[in-house]
Amino acid sequence: MPAERPSPQPLSDLQRHQLAAAERALRAGDLAESIRLAQDVTAQAPDAADAWHLWAVALAKSGKPEAACVPFRRAQELAPDNAHLLANFATALRRLDRLDAAAELWHRALERVPAFGQAWLDLGLTELDRGRLDEAHAALQQAVTLMPTSATAWHGLASTLDAQDRVADAEQALRKALACGQQRPARLLLHLGHILRRQARLEEALACYDEARRSGPETPELLDAQAGVLLDSGRIDAAIAMARRLTATHPRYAPGQRTLASILWEYGEPAGQTEDPLARLVQAVAAHPDDGELRLTYARLLRQTGRGDAALEQVAELRRRGDHPVLQRFAADTLEALGRSADAAPIYDELYRKRGAHDPDFINTYTRHLLKTGQWQAAAARAQDVIARDPYNQEALGYLATAWRLLGDAREFWLCDYDRLITLVDIDVPEGYADLRQFLHALEATLLELHRASRAPVQQTLRQGTQTPGNLFGRPEPAIQAVEHGILSAARRWTRSLPTDDRHPFLGRGARDLRVRGAWSVKLVSTGFHVNHVHPFGWISSAFYVFLPPIMQGSGADAGAIQFGQPPTELGLELPARRVLHPRPGSLALFPSYMWHGTVPFRDDAVRLTVACDMIPVA
């Protein structure tokens, strides 16, 4: 049997007085005095768990969480069942980004005191940081049950629901957070505006941001959010003006610089003015040469707008000042995009050896490099590593299909099943329209009003065309509401017709219903096309054909057709498409989001107009 822990010696009257004084100093914010007094008590009474605990808390509050771990551990040895001690130690560990250890301590605290609301809250926020959304949701639901007037708990729950793409539920949680106090904090209003924007409720979002401005300072995040909503609502000049104001008042706010550059790249200047879209960012980098975030933002935009060599120069300057895995990966990705795979290879290999095995996003990029350089067996293994951690990682599934194809592995056809898992169906004629032709005409007119851009967004898959901003579905236009209903109805019918296979990453995801996760419209002009790609955040992806140029309605030509199974051409694999669909106006293509798909270029004076959305299962 383990030896019994000796009972601690009781504190003397003087020591109790010192400990009480240390507690008062802590509450008053005199952390140095609290540390001095608590440390003095532990020197006199080394078994005094409360003194060690108080010393640790004061150290943590003074911004020294690493130093606080030593007295926390001693206090935990002396009082292993003290739930508040465990929770305070977990808080210090969370500040040190030791999230796994922090979560373990909060679980232990809750085993001892199940009604510990603050511990449920902190555990939920930690699980959210770890990306464990189901666990975060469960913990934060407990927190709001135990602390129904805690705005922080409701906001944490809203953030989790937002990350789970449950935007309507997130909105309700945010409204409960706002109702917890007489004041309506700007950060909550900013988040509510974001949720409303995701639902395409743009005027409500702008009203939220106006209230946020009255509730607190005009932050760069607020100005950035307003510029985005103005853009979504078609007020292009106002969006540009807001983004210019943002970059003028907060020139070192890198996301704002990116916002302005991206809008100018896609929409151009108001009133026909011309300027390099990156000019304001160039000025900011020159004015603040030591700001690494600004320079990296500039480098990323250079690469995304086709200036890879210039991007490499910028990141090389950053790496001279202090190298970092983020910069190393950027350099490797840029070299790869420039076709310099041999130069990228040693960087990728070193990153994988050091830390890549724990980063699914990096492993996907590394897998792409392995495919491009002929290391097909290794590519399959790395894709399977990601899928073992995240079975529904759409990008990894796409790379695995390609690796299996290159290796002659028949599992490619089990995974992709090009005949069964790709379909072209018709939607029902929506209510209020005499026939499909009338509906398509109304939808075409509505969509063309929304296509205000002059070229494609930065880092998108379309070439020679434009894409609508923001979320298309949820807008008030009747034709858009009708196409959303039609697409969802047709997709539900299709999913009900499919067999169930628990081993399959597409057929094994149980779904009582479908929820849209992003919707947009694309207008391609002559020579336009989509590069081959997958949709990382969907389960089912779609393309609804509103208007097709005459060349696509001829006899059997592939111009403008949608093709499946061909990986990105920049991988240099020279694999043909596995299946090609020739859509007709009013038809809807449905397919797994991990399926490589793109379109064949066409030449015609008329445009090719589509609506697309991703859908995920509601289990």
Describe this entry's structure for a reader.
With about 625 residues, the protein is an alpha+beta fold. Helix content is about 55%, strand content about 10%. Among the domains are: about 10-80, Tetratricopeptide repeat domain (Serine Threonine Protein Phosphatase 5, Tetratricopeptide repeat, Alpha Horseshoe); about 80-180, Serine Threonine Protein Phosphatase 5, Tetratricopeptide repeat (Alpha Horseshoe), CATH 1.25.40; about 425-619, q2cbj1_9rhob like domain (Jelly Rolls, Sandwich), CATH 2.60.120. The strands form 2 sheets. A 6-stranded antiparallel sheet has the order 1-7-4-9-3-2. Strands 6-5-8 form a 3-stranded antiparallel sheet, with no helix packed on it. α3 packs antiparallel against α4 and α6 runs antiparallel to α7. The longest helix is centred in the C-terminal third of the chain and has 20 residues, at about 480-495. The protein starts with 12 loop residues before the first helix and ends with a strand.
Descriptive labels:
619 residues; alpha+beta; Serine Threonine Protein Phosphatase 5, Tetratricopeptide repeat; three-stranded antiparallel sheet
Describe what is shown at a glance.
This protein has helices at residues 13-28, 31-44, 49-61, 65-78, 83-95, 99-112, 117-129, 133-146, 151-163, 167-178, 186-198, 202-215, 220-232, 236-249, 254-267, 279-287, 292-304, 308-321, 325-337, 341-354, 360-372, 376-389, 394-406, 411-416, 436-450, 478-497; strands spanning 423-426, 462-467, 513-530, 540-547, 562-564, 579-581, 587-592, 597-599, 608-618. It is of the alpha+beta class and 619 residues long.
